[in-house]
């Protein structure tokens, strides 16, 4: 269950824990026309979680903030990323009115031998969720935008930003935060959308049904294909259900595969009209050096920075962290440090996700179930965000580790992960 909200602003708490030193480089702007504290301006393009976090952080630092969102928050329909595993960094009261529906205490992970009727359960893991909520994300974003507006942020919803508009923002503001997703608007302007090295595709929907046997817990299901499905109850009668796949292992029909997964797992089957499709970065899908574009005065955050967990698909915590980090460094004149600092904070998470995902790629539910059972009991947020706990647990299971490293493909993955040999390094040089 989630701890109390406390009274300290979450960005202020984050900033106090980050070692930020002014570099003297002045690396916060393209034109650097002013730059005095209280007189700097930032344009944030994209009003999802990363953009909202960036707008919040810069407003706490007394920058002038303009936030652009192409949809209206009242009409926006977004229900990806609704299981948020660390809501303590969101500066909202955790109420149903603000979109926090279910203070879910546990995430259960089931690993099956396949996705057919005669599949067998290979193993399970249960992960406490001390900071998690299943949310109505559209309501969370609406409440956050309303709070920003009340605190003086110029929130311009229903306002798309064209390439020409983006270029003008770069000229008229000290900094532009690109929170437009993968591929980002900055990449589209530069003609470098191919610089991203992979993604996952997911479908999900809100459905009504009887979830009383599971609620208030949540469940993730692996069925020996390169992806997973889930059910995140919001109440005993309503839930978010979904399914995701690696970009290079997608089914012929997304909707047919989604319907089949719901039927197999005895979940209500959504209609096409209920289903949303979205893209999740296969982090790190973008060269970290490309997250800060000093010549343009553009810093990329969240999905635009290519950061999400390639195994679990989680990206909300990472998005908020990237935005808070960018703001803290920008305010200290240290944005040149952002690429290395962001990568350093996520590197171990990337490594664990890359290696464990190999069990799916190799069709080894025995290994995956062994991993889940070994790390069971660690907080669901810490499994990803503090992977040293997971590594320590795995070290207590030498037979499992031997099986993992006894597979040549998995051994190769471990080597590539520990030498930082990511897919973006193997793209055509013209894409980067």
From TrEMBL:
Transmembrane segments: none annotated. InterPro entries: FAD/NAD-bd_sf, Geranylgeranyl_reductase. Keywords: Oxidoreductase. Signal peptide: none annotated. GO terms for molecular function: oxidoreductase activity. The keyword Zinc does not apply. Gene3D superfamilies: FAD/NAD(P)-binding domain. It comes from the Archaea. The keyword Ribosomal protein does not apply. Its EC number is 1.-.-.-. This is NAD(P)/FAD-dependent oxidoreductase.
